[in-house]
Design goal:
- The protein is of the alpha/beta class and 549 residues long.
- It has 19 helices and 20 strands.
- Helix 9 (265-272) crosses helix 16, helix 11 crosses helix 12 and helix 13 packs across helix 15.
- It is globular.
Length: 549
């Protein structure tokens, strides 16, 4: 039987990755990565002159086109397959990676007169320079009892769409007037592939603020949703169009190849591990973490974002939570607080510093160090949604060892994940299965056992190290349809191509007992510092900022 293939393109913060899969088996035939020449712009624009202030995080969309021109020809060359045998393409980006464009799709930053204007470029998901607009929006929405906030867990983040467009309207009104569309990067790249402006991938159709509310923020925003943004959403695997002549020339693929609607990287990871139905929670764990689960009913959950019905899998709502720092916690600690003697020991044992600390920490029993930490070293996104919260470590004494602190930080992130799980369950979504993907889940057996023990659930691990790209390739196979060698639904595709490893993590009963006791103490600290019992973290930040100014 003739082989058929699909390509998934995962656009990350630093690079784009393309994966070629066998449509019948889900086997990953080849992988190609292209590092963005402009990387993440946090200090300066490509002109070398325009400086950026704290909190900015921008991309140049030319890098996205270069990913297509580099990785896909590399896949074809490596495998020597016939481009006609590639039946579909899917792409994914992080949510709320957005950009201003003209009516024909031309990015504003491609226009000569705007090359030195920061607001003309792509704002990444982690662009935080719109924080003051998010703060103002939240205060005003609470004052006027706006119910749209409920869908966002009670607060708007600076990372989301409306604060970013408000920032443009206030700080660069010329860019706001020049743009015809404010579009997700996934939608834009699909537009370049097909020549057709697609529907939006942001999972929001009926949950944006009203025209009256937007006008109260800035008169320019009154008609933003109807004029510069496309409301209609789509579930994974719907066909956006077919590869046009421009994209065929860029990639070496056949014109007419099916292209799926754009995907959000976390959402498209669900079918990649075989999830297309409710009550199965996927934790995507890396430098930060995103937890996502499907539900049959619409619920407003404090600190948890609710995606519109049918915007991920037909028939279901999507619930997403974020931990702002996971791997970043551990990286911070080893870079700032581990003595040189530990690095020398790691070198002598041919280990990196994380491996050494894990080896030492694994010799401890849960609770043996007497330490307990909160996981807010990069603020709290879920469930408290408060960037001004900070880290806590209790139980330190003169005998405390670095590996004990390190283990306490690992455990803190697991407690944070359990807090998210408990919040979702308490809202009436009965999570019955737990899955994990991402770099930490793939590489770190020690921390995943801690997660299983803290959450008291089996944890299945994604079968692919390229989970979002695999999911995007699956969406391309669905866009192609069964008549072309693909699949008719993402549910069918997930059952056949979705993968988890044979090995999974099972809770150790004696560890569960101890962690249940420690988690009770974590919850007390969580509520005391996070829900108004003691606002010392905010007061300390105020003093710090006052001294800076």
């Amino acid at each position: 039987m003739k082989k058929r293939y699909s390509i998934g393109i995962d656009y990350g913060s630093m690079a784009g990755k393309s994966v070629l899969i066998d449509v019948d088996t889900g086997d990953e035939i080849a992988v190609s990565v292209f590092n963005y020449p402009h990387s993440v712009m946090t200090e300066c624009l490509p002109d070398g002159k325009t400086k950026l202030e704290d909190g900015w995080a921008l991309h140049d969309p030319q890098d996205y086109l270069d990913v297509l021109a580099s990785t896909i020809p590399a896949l074809l060359k490596e495998t020597d397959i016939n481009p006609a045998d590639v039946i579909g393409i899917g792409v994914d980006f992080a949510s709320s990676t957005v950009m201003p464009v003209k009516e024909d799709g031309t990015p504003i930053c491609f226009m000569e007169e705007y090359k030195s204007e920061p607001h003309a470029y792509v704002k990444l998901w982690k662009h935080h320079a719109a924080q003051k607009y998010a703060d103002s929006l939240n205060k005003y929405a609470e004052k006027t009892n706006e119910d749209f906030l409920l869908k966002y867990g009670g607060k708007f983040s600076s990372e989301w769409l409306v604060p970013k467009i408000w920032q443009i309207a206030e700080e660069a009104p010329r860019v706001y007037d020049e743009m015809d569309k404010f579009i997700g990067a996934a939608d834009w790249i699909v537009w370049q592939l097909t020549g057709i402006e697609p529907i939006n991938t942001q999972g929001i159709e009926n949950t944006l603020p009203s025209k009256e509310f937007l006008k109260s923020l800035n008169p320019k925003l009154e008609d933003f949703v109807d004029i510069k943004f496309k409301r209609k959403v789509s579930s994974i695997g719907k066909k956006a169009g077919e590869l046009n002549q421009f994209a065929a020339g860029l990639t070496g693929l056949k014109q007419g190849t099916a292209v799926a609607v754009g995907n959000i990287n976390t959402q498209v990871s669900l079918p990649a591990v075989g999830i297309a139905d409710p009550c199965k929670l996927l934790m995507i764990i890396g430098k930060s973490a995103c937890d996502i689960v499907l539900g049959e009913e619409e619920k407003n959950i404090s600190g948890i974002y609710c995606a519109d019905k049918n915007s991920i899998i037909d028939g279901y709502y999507g619930y997403e939570a974020i931990q702002s720092g996971v791997g970043e916690h551990f990286d911070w600690f080893v870079k700032s607080s581990v003595p040189e003697s530990y690095y020398r020991e790691a070198n002598a044992l041919d280990m990196n510093i994380h491996q050494l600390l894990r080896t030492k920490a694994s010799k401890q029993r849960p609770g043996e160090s007497g330490l307990l930490a909160l996981d807010w070293w990069n603020g709290s996104r879920s469930v408290l949604m408060d960037k001004d919260l900070s880290g806590v470590m209790l139980g330190l004494n003169l005998q405390t060892r670095p590996e004990e602190i390190y283990r306490a930080l690992l455990e803190a992130t697991a407690y944070g994940a359990r807090m998210i799980l408990d919040t979702i369950r308490d809202a009436g979504i009965p999570v019955t299965e737990l899955y994990a993907a991402g770099g930490v889940a793939q590489k770190d057996a020690f921390i995943m056992q801690i997660y299983a023990d803290v959450m008291n659930m089996d944890i299945k691990i994604a079968g692919s190290v390229h989970t979002p790209a695999l999911g995007s390739a699956m969406s391309g196979a669905v866009a192609a349809g069964k008549e072309n060698g693909g699949y008719d639904t993402i549910e069918e595709c997930a059952k056949i191509l979705g993968k988890t490893k044979a090995h999974y993590y099972r809770p150790i009963p004696e560890n569960v007992e101890t962690y249940n006791e420690l988690y009770k103490e974590y919850k007390k600290l969580h509520n005391y510092y996070g829900k108004g019992g003691n606002d010392v973290m905010k007061r300390l930040k105020d003093i710090k900022m006052a001294l800076k100014n």
